[in-house]
């Protein structure tokens, strides 16, 4: 429950602090006094995005701080999940700096907005005037029934399964699009692939073919130059080999004179051996050189195939051609194997739909089981609130389609008068009737949930007199199981509070500020008397106020 609330430098609020108790707390004040400002500050504690324009003094920071007593609520796992330090007296603080930057702290540990929102959902429910209209909103209707049916676990499982189904459906859609595109290009891609496969591409083949083409194209030149080289080496008496042997013999005669001469002889001997080896290899190469027009034509044809492929695909190497061949292989394979892949995807979707249908069926059954009980409880409360002939009908029908919250279509219908026809609840009920129905719904939810605090912002809109008195009784009973805070303009409701705060505006120096005060018994009498009869308090208004308090 909320035990203290401190607001500094926010809108019209300079510095206020509220110490709150268990039970039923009342907040009253004239229109425009600042009640909505206080709710706005509380919303910041619950993770609402900060508005820099809300800072009162732009040279100071705005600070909203709330202390919550969590001793009676098991929230340790939530704190652990959000990586926060758990304290039974938890302090949430929100700061808006003059720079426009916003900061949040939970027990002095910096926290992000998602952590504030996760914790806020377990601590506070702020019912605004606008929320009464949400009774006709289908999402809110499902929220109510699912809360009563304790469907949170089933809903999470269903929504995860639905997300998986959407991923599978997207995959199938992409496969079909790719298959359709591949089918259009299949014949052309297959033709290109066959061309590349027939070329029998291998790394280095182009270089080898180009070398062999040069050899076969220059047979005469090779024969002439190789023969001449052999002749220059091996010609008797004047050939390089003969001259080298003579020089070697000269050095051999003086090799023993010193190590230097011997080294020169060894080196010349090595050259002589190398020259003999070169001559032998030249002769062997010369013997292999012969004109071969047929092979030349074959090599030329292979090279022309490579050059033509490179030109067609706008590349310059065999490596690039091989990469294109791999890509074409994948495209052709995709087209040829598309039906198998599509069949696999469709099978996976069918299995996922089956799982999803199981979850949706469980949701439907649990909703169907709580709806009669819920209708009965709502109608009993409405009877107490001056709508004895009001009957509620909730239609719940299973559909084939998967929606975000299951396969159900739900509609709340109301017959406000005896013998009247049923109509959509937001059309069948007036503003005051909607307020009473919403209070009935909230009071039922309060018995099912363990939410520490609920705040009603003028839930009594459109009602008065005896009905307001009965609404006050319901709020008071709710205050027995949880902390209930009600902002009201009705003295009948204000008189039922266990504690009472008054919000008011006052002039201070050159500005107007909003302030708040907890009223003592005598002050409550005066406040109620003013709510009954205006600023000119009469004896009868005071007597009526005392009666309401008693």
From TrEMBL:
Location of the RecF/RecN/SMC N-terminal domain: 2-509
Lineage top rank: taxon: Bacteria
SUPFAM superfamilies: P-loop containing nucleoside triphosphate hydrolases
Coiled coil start-end: 158-226, 321-362
UniProt keywords, alphabetically: ATP-binding, Coiled coil, DNA damage, DNA repair, Nucleotide-binding
Annotated Pfam families: SMC_N
Gene3D superfamilies in UniProt: P-loop containing nucleotide triphosphate hydrolases (3.40.50.300)
Physiological role: May be involved in recombinational repair of damaged DNA.
Family under the similarity heading: Belongs to the RecN family.
NCBIfam families assigned: recN
Protein name, per record: DNA repair protein RecN
Lineage: Bacteria, Pseudomonadati, Bacteroidota, Flavobacteriia, Flavobacteriales
């Amino acid at each position: 429950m909320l035990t203290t609330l401190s607001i500094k430098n926010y809108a019209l609020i300079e510095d206020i602090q509220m110490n709150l108790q268990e039970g039923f707390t009342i907040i009253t004040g004239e229109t425009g006094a600042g009640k909505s400002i206080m709710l706005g500050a509380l919303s910041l504690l619950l993770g609402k995005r900060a508005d820099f324009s809300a800072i009162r003094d732009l040279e100071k920071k705005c600070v909203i701080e709330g202390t919550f007593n969590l001793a009676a609520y098991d929230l340790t796992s939530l704190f652990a999940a959000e990586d926060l330090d758990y304290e039974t007296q938890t302090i949430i603080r929100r700061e808006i700096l003059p720079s426009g930057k916003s900061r949040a702290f939970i027990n002095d540990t910096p926290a992000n907005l998602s952590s504030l929102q996760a914790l806020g959902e377990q601590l506070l429910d702020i019912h605004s005037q606008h929320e009464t209209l949400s009774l006709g909103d289908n999402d809110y209707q499902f929220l109510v029934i699912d809360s009563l049916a304790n469907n949170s676990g089933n809903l999470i499982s269903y929504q995860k399964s639905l997300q998986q189904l959407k991923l599978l459906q997207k995959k199938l859609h992409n496969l079909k699009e790719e298959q359709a595109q591949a089918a259009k290009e299949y014949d052309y891609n297959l033709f290109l692939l066959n061309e590349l496969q027939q070329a029998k591409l291998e790394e280095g083949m182009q270089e080898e073919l180009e070398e062999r083409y040069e050899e076969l194209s220059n047979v005469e030149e090779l024969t002439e130059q190789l023969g001449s080289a052999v002749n220059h080496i091996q010609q008797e008496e004047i050939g390089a080999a003969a001259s080298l042997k003579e020089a070697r013999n000269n050095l051999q005669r003086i090799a023993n004179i010193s190590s230097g001469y011997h080294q020169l002889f060894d080196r010349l001997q090595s050259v002589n051996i190398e020259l003999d080896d070169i001559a032998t290899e030249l002769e062997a190469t010369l013997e292999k050189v012969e004109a071969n027009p047929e092979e030349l034509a074959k090599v030329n044809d292979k090279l022309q195939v490579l050059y033509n492929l490179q030109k067609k695909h706008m590349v310059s190497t065999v490596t690039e051609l091989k990469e294109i061949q791999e890509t074409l292989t994948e495209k052709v394979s995709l087209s040829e194997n598309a039906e198998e892949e599509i069949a696999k995807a469709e099978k996976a979707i069918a299995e996922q739909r089956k799982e999803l249908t199981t979850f949706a069926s469980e949701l439907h059954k649990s909703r169907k089981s709580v709806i009669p009980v819920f209708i009965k409880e709502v109608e009993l409360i409405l009877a107490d609130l001056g709508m004895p002939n009001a009957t509620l009908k909730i239609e719940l029908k299973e559909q084939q389609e998967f929606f975000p919250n299951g396969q159900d279509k739900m509609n709340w219908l109301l017959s406000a008068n005896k013998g009247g026809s049923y109509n959509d609840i937001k059309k069948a009920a007036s503003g005051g009737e909607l307020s009473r129905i919403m209070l009935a719904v909230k009071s039922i939810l309060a018995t099912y949930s363990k939410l520490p605090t609920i705040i009603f912002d003028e839930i009594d809109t459109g009602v008065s007199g005896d009905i307001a008195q009965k609404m006050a009784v319901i709020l008071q009973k709710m205050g027995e199981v949880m902390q209930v805070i009600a902002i009201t303009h009705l003295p009948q409701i204000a008189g039922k509070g266990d504690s009472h705060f008054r919000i008011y505006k006052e002039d201070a120096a050159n500005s107007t500020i909003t302030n708040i005060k907890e009223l003592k018994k005598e002050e409550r009498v005066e406040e109620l008397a003013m709510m009954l009869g205006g600023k000119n308090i009469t004896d009868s208004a005071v007597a009526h106020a005392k009666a309401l308090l008693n």
